[in-house]
Specification:
Chain lengths: 240, 245
């Protein structure tokens, strides 16, 4: 599998930028400890704690996807890495596959650390929580990664993309906290992941009628990804 | 591969980069593409690679998975070692397996023990601690181990000392001599021709290929051209005291 060497490389790159790893894991851990401090070493109200953990795992899924999907490809495109490896590997699919798997592996490790910490602090059942979390990222990470691929199809420069994703993350958090409308899950992937998290963690029950919304959103996100891959640019903007 | 009537200018630029340019690549030959800085050499490589869509007639285009395109100055993580770069380039191509990688596998490319010492040293050296010339030497050596139909090299000897430049030329020459591959080698350094025996020279000037001749006849063709770039090439070549391979 020719993606394996690239997976290793992208993992090295992700581990090199340790501040991102701390940011994606540190913010959820800090927030959970602060807001749930009343429940530390108490066994009661597991559902409240689990809802909170579900929200922050949703945040991590979205943050990892936004940092390693389209915006990261824009940076690789502008550095001409994308162009170089398009020809070495012979296809863009192996680069995308390597990008997805590398972020998925690191996301899984981060979630595992978060789960272990949560179980130690709040006395939650580790195996159940870990299975629920892994199911959540398996279900939500591919469509959200696919959604953010649309950045790679846009004529955005490297200097534009970083502030843009910072603003977007804050918008997503704001929208998910304000919970204005259910239909917001079309535009807010944190909301989308959180709704699935609530279902997996047993907080809400999806009736057959309400199931259409996450399924439609999943298909919508995957469709955007497929369209973005077709329209993806390989030549850096600065040369055009 | 043949390109006919290529006209091109960038969307935001007024300058015509290619003006009814036509030429063909001869299979199994090294094509030295000479042109001034900003003259359109890299853009022409983008056209040949199929990355840049143009309205020219392109006959027998080569699919992307059969092309290897060396690009100038791609930043790579500074902490990875030479062996990691080898793994990245060779294994990402799908032509090598990680467990088979070692400095010994490059030995067929080398002529003397100094090259062997160099690869052994660079194999465990961090990429960030290599000089720009060493990085380029290692990267191009790895590229030359890949099996493709068309190789596009964009200024492969930029920032490289003359000795290493000759080694790079030998790696590239080997692609043609031993494997019969087609190579396009873009440069603005006329002395790079010294590294090759059997080649064609393409001179890109004012958006056109003004000279397209083999190694024996390119100089005469260049002398007939009136453009200042061709005149300068001729002067430089004739003044060069070491134009023997």
């Amino acid at each position: 599998m020719n993606s394996f060497a690239m997976i290793k490389h992208f993992l090295r790159v992700l581990m090199y930028y340790k501040i991102n790893f701390i940011f994606t894991l540190g913010v959820p851990v800090g927030s959970i400890i602060y807001t749930m401090r009343g429940y530390i070493f108490h066994m009661s109200n597991q559902q409240i704690v689990q809802t909170h953990i579900g929200y922050w795992i949703s945040y991590m899924v979205v943050l990892y996807a936004i940092m390693n999907s389209g915006p990261s490809l824009v940076i690789l495109r502008e550095e001409q890495f994308l162009k170089m490896f398009l020809f070495i590997s012979g296809s863009v699919r192996s680069i995308l596959c390597a990008k997805f798997i590398s972020q998925f592996l690191l996301l899984s490790i981060s979630v595992l650390i978060l789960d272990i910490l949560s179980c130690l602090l709040f006395g939650l059942p580790i195996i159940r929580l870990f299975i629920q979390s892994i199911l959540l990222i398996i279900l939500c990470s591919p469509p959200i990664f696919s959604l953010f691929l649309f950045f790679a199809a846009l004529p955005l420069r490297q200097e534009t993309i970083t502030p843009l994703i910072n603003v977007l993350i804050f918008c997503f958090i704001f929208l998910s906290v304000s919970q204005i409308n259910h239909l917001l899950i079309f535009v807010n992937p944190i909301d989308y992941t959180f709704q699935i998290a609530r279902f997996l963690f047993g907080v809400t029950v999806f009736h057959a009628v309400r199931l259409w919304l996450p399924i439609t959103v999943t298909l919508f996100y995957l469709l955007i990804g497929a369209f973005a891959v077709k329209k993806m640019r390989f030549l850096p903007i600065f040369r055009n | 591969m043949k390109i006919e009537h290529l006209n091109f200018k960038y969307k935001k630029g007024d300058r015509l980069v290619f003006d009814n340019l036509s030429f063909n690549l001869v299979q199994g030959k090294i094509h030295i593409l000479l042109g001034r800085n900003g003259g359109g050499k890299s853009t022409l490589l983008d056209v040949l690679s199929g990355l840049l869509r143009v309205d020219a007639v392109i006959l027998n285009p080569i699919p992307k998975n059969e092309i290897l395109y060396q690009i100038q100055g791609v930043p790579i993580l500074s902490t990875i070692k030479g062996k990691h770069l080898a793994e990245l380039i060779l294994c990402a191509s799908g032509q090598y397996k990680s467990r088979d990688l070692s400095p010994e596998m490059c030995s067929e490319l080398f002529n003397d023990h100094r090259e062997w010492e160099k690869i052994t040293y660079l194999w465990d050296q961090q990429y960030g601690k290599m000089s720009p010339g060493e990085r380029r030497w290692l990267t191009i050596m790895l590229y030359c181990m890949l099996d493709k139909s068309l190789y596009l090299f964009d200024e492969p000897t930029a920032g490289v000392d003359p000795y290493s430049g000759m080694q790079i030329a030998r790696f590239i020459r080997r692609l043609q001599e031993k494997k019969g591959k087609t190579v396009v080698y873009a440069t603005h350094k006329i002395q790079d021709l010294n590294g090759f025996k059997d080649y064609r020279v393409l001179v890109l000037d004012e958006g056109k290929i003004v000279v397209n001749e083999d190694g024996q006849h390119w100089l005469q063709a260049c002398k007939k051209e009136k453009g200042p770039f061709c005149k300068r090439i001729v002067a430089l070549w004739e003044n060069s005291s070491s134009n023997l391979i």
